[in-house]
Amino acid sequence: MKDKVIVVLSGGLDSTTCMAIAHAEGQDIFPLTFVYGQKHTVELEAARKVAEYYGVAERHKIINLEGLLFGSSLTDKDKDIPTGRTLEEIGEGIPSTYVPARNIVFLALALAQAEPLGARAIYLGVNALDFSGYPDCRPEFIAAFQEVINRGTAAGVEGRGIRLETPLINLTKAEIIKKGLELGAPYHLTYSCYQGTVPSCGVCDACILRLKGFREAGAIDPIPYRQFSALCR
Prior knowledge:
Subunit structure: Homodimer.
CATH class: Alpha Beta
Keywords: ATP-binding, Ligase, Metal-binding, Nucleotide-binding, Queuosine biosynthesis, Zinc
Largest sheet: 5 strands, parallel
Binding site for Zn(2+): 193, 201, 204, 207
EC number: 6.3.4.20
Helix content: 25-40%
Cofactor: Zn(2+)
């Protein structure tokens, strides 16, 4: 029998790669997407299209957290999303696009879906190499939350367990893209831009890291961009 699994699906490149991995493993996928007041709500339509692509649109659950998460340039109207930064600047410190407690909240709600569903795993597309310094994308956070699952759920204490799967955590963006391309991930349906423009802006941190990854993977990004950072030309 297939294992039931939750895939936290934003509609971006990393979460779509997780979908591709779970699908290739033969898992019984239940996608979970969050609306949290993000400026790039275009990603929600991307998530719907990806769920449809994998034939699980009827199971795709979207949870509305609008107004509950704030304190980030991704959510707050009075905060500007940084653009045109160098790779050194992107890699320094915790950026303004960090959303306080976002992955903690997402994983708690994913767990609340997974346990009664009888799911054996939660897939999350966090990455600790080509990333923007978020503390909730680091291996130590994932290990700590796995301990929360083990100690704070009936499934955990009864030994049935729910695994927190982070298959991308130690991969570069280029390696993630190569893996996704091998598995036929529908990158043409995905959306990553923090600014929420159509086409994607090409100069925010997310666009820069995505384009850099495609370039280093020797592949062409199938989505359009308004412009390109000097790093991506």
